[in-house]
Amino acid sequence: MIKKISKTRISHRIATGYALALGIAMLGTSLGLVIGNYYQNQARREQILASQEARVLNDLQTAFLELRSQDEQLTRLAQTPQAYSYQYPSFQARLDKSQILLSKFESYVEKSYTEQQNQTEDLVRFIEANRDVASRYLEIIDRLLAQIAPLTVEGATGTVNETVLNQFANIQNSVQLEAFSENLTELIILAHQRQRAAETQLNQAENLRLGIILISMVLSVVIAVLLAIYTSRAITRPIRSAVTEFASFSQQLSSTTEEQERMAEQQAETVQQTTVTMDEMGASSHQSAEQAELAATTAHDTLNLSEKGNKVASETLDGMMELKEKVEAIANKILQLNQQTDEINSITNLVSEIANQTNMLALNASVEAARAGEQGKGFSVIATEIRKLADISRESTKKINTLLENITTEIQSTVTVTQAGTETVKVGIQLAKDTSHIFSTVSDSVENIATNNQQILLTAKQQLTAVQQVVEAMNSINSGASQTAQGISQTNISSEKLNEAAQNLQVLV
User: What is the mean pLDDT of the chain?
Assistant: First the structure.
């Protein structure tokens, strides 16, 4: 092929060289695009599947966490349905959401296992190991809510089956349910890892495509250079005899001028690039100084907000402590009221006993009056009135006992609510303490950030001053390089005599 090319005209040789280099570049570019797109599409599919898996797992975990976070409230609703009937719809909605998401997750795993078996084996193992405990947990809650629903109606009576309550309490603290949550978290981590791996593969595919294109471009450039060298040699051989007569005259001048011009151009280009770079660096330094100053101001404002937040947290803690004392005082008063109610109950029982004894005495008196005949009629009337009064006393005592029982029941409910309020206040106090500690830590960190930002601002200003000085020096060098280039241009005028000899070479091209 080289021999055939060497026999053609110079213009044909040049055209063949350019066509060959361009063909290699186009072939390499097309090959890089095809291969890169293939691996990119494959990595993008993996990324979409991993994203879908992470989203399904996150939704399922969120639903179960929301459901489990309300276990204590659900137990309270089951124990006193009418008092907390307003919470029933939210529990039913969370249950329905969890059941739908669990079914959706199982369908997703089944579909994914059919399409890509190797990448979903961990999901299949998770379903096989945890399907029963998750379904049983939701089933028990469903049964519990089914028993609670009719009890939330106003005026309804009855209680929830103790067996269902015990089953709910047992599965709340079961090891299998805890393992379900932990395994679900591990699956979410694996899904995110696969997503990041897909992103890495996507970047690698892009790098592969660029690499193939770059190699093809470099190869085409190398071939073009080799062909240019070959073509230049083919051109110089026939014209070497023509240029010999003036080579001695122009060789030294031409080489010197070209070298000087090349050096001047390189120097001017380098100085120009350096000047542009320094200008950009100056702008960047100025922007960095402004950003550092803004960051310092923001850090100072954040520090003030943290101090205010710490103060509010301390005030909240004091208020919670005072509320705790008041709730405990209310509890003590209620206990005293309960004791006094017990004393009243004892007194009413005594009154009832006295009424019964009075009734018996009045009955005996009536019998004795009947035996006495006419002389005992007056006494019989009195005995009858005494019996009526005793009956009235006994009935009143029963009503008082009924009222006392109702009061005792309400007092016990109030004691239970007060104890729950006390526990809630204790939790609030602990949260307020933790919040105060966090604000203190944030204040220390923000103060350190503010100090560092001040140091960065000072350094940025010093850097900006130094860059401005360098820019001024580079402008001076650039001016000198321009003057040098003008001098070399004057020197090139002396080589115009060579143009006459160059015209003789056009016939050979």
Answer: 72
Question: Where residue 180 falls among pLDDT bands split at 50, 70, 90?
Answer: confident
For 228-262, the three-class secondary structure string (H helix, E strand, C coil) is HHHHHHHHHHHHHHHHHHHHHHHHHHHHHHHHHHH
Query: On the CB side of 15, how many CA atoms lie within 13 Å of its CA?
Result: 5
Q: Is 121 exposed, middle or buried (0-12, 13-18, 19+ CB in 10 A)?
A: exposed
Q: pTM (2 decimals)?
A: 0.33
Q: Which amino acid is at 153?
A: V
Contact, 60 vs 252, CB < 8 A?
Answer: no
Q: Which residues of 274-310 are buried (b: 16+ CB within 10 A; e: fewer)?
A: bbeebeebbeebbebbeebbebbeebbebbeebbebb
**Cβ contact 397:405 at 8 Å:** no
Report the C-alpha gap between 168 and 91 in whole angstroms: 14
What integer is the mean pLDDT of 433-447?
74
CB–CB of 234/496 below 8 Å? no
The total of other beta-carbon atoms located within 10 Å of residue 382's CB is 13
Q: What is the pLDDT of residue 436?
A: 72
Comparison of pLDDT for 79 and 333, the residue scoring more: 333
Cβ neighbours of 245 (radius 10 Å)? 9
Instruction: Identify whether the C-beta of residue 306 lies closer than 8 Å to the C-beta of residue 443.
Output: yes
The burial of 153, by beta-carbon neighbours within 10 Å (0-12 exposed, 13-18 middle, 19 or more buried), is given as: exposed
Cα–Cα separations (whole angstroms), residue 64 to 24, 103, 141, 369? 59, 13, 12, 81
Per-residue pLDDT at 138 exceeds 70: yes
Q: What is the pLDDT of residues 459-500, one digit of tens each?
A: 767 776 876 776 676 677 667 667 766 766 676 665 666 656
- Of 51, 57, 63, give the one whose Cα is nearest residue 99: 63
When pLDDT is cut at 50, 70 and 90, the band that residue 413 belongs to is confident
Fold classification of 290-481 (topology level) = Helix Hairpins (1.10.287)
Q: Of all residues in the chain, what percent are helix, strand and coil, respectively (each to 5)?
A: 95, 0, 5
Rg (CA), the chain: 49
Q: Indicate left, alpha or beta for 158 from its phi (over 0: left) and psi (-120 to 50: alpha).
A: left
Whole-angstrom distance, CA of residue 107 vs CA of residue 101: 10
- Residue 347 φ then ψ, to 5°: -65, -45
Tell me the two tokens of residue 459.
């350094």
Report, as an integer, the average pLDDT of 186-206: 78
Domain ranges in the chain? Answer: 2-239, 290-481
What is the percent of the chain where pLDDT is above 70? 62
| Amino acid 175: pLDDT | 60
Six-digit token pair at 166? 């015990």
CA atoms within 13 A on the CB side of 318: 5
